[in-house]
Amino acid sequence: MSDVSSPSPHPADARHLLVIGAGPGIGAATARRFTRDGYRVTLVARHRDKLEELAADLRSTGAEVAVVRADAADPGQLREALSSLYAAPNPPGVVLYNVAQVTPDDLLSAAPEDLLGAHTVDVVGGVVAAQVAVPAMRAAGGGTLLFTGGGLADQPHPGLATLSLGKLGLRGVANLLGAQLAEDGIRVRTLTVNGMVAPGTPFDPEHIAERYRRLVDEAKPGFVDEHFNGA
Predict the structure, then answer these.
(1) Which is more confidently placed, 76 or 101?
(2) How far apart are CA 107 and CA 20, in angstroms?
(3) Could you tell me which of 119, 171, 177, 173 has the C-alpha nearest to residue 144?
């Protein structure tokens, strides 16, 4: 019987940022902030037209940008898309999972399929991203996993039940990953945003992007839940 083994992963590039959930708020602002410091960026979102608009804006500044269309609501599709990205040389060494399903609901009326769907987007997608990215980070001797959290993890709201559960679950994922990956030199951070994200406020996406940029330079291996209380 032949001995068939998986090919060794390409080492992750510490100057390559992957943004999963590259929407017009935190995702776009973080991509802009990192490209200003010379990072390559790969953008992932559901809608290719919006991705291309953001990519064109970033490329106009001289940034190197790639786009990948994938839906975090479909873990199989997300895994396939990210696996193709990580099969190429110099895959991302910094990953931001910035996805959430924001739907007003409560536990007593939420349908089981809605609970499962929200959990898939809010939590399972983050696990899938880590599963694909970590081998490359290990091959490079380190990397950074970032997860956008929220104050609902500390103060769940009955009217935002599935999102509250999602932020609690995502923090648990990051905590578990940090414990497992610290010896590999991998940094895992949740940024708990304790306010409504909106331009022109203390919770402007640009302020949050600046915090993410600092975290990458300052963070040590393992898990920390960072809190952002406004700039």
Answers:
(1) 76
(2) 27
(3) 177
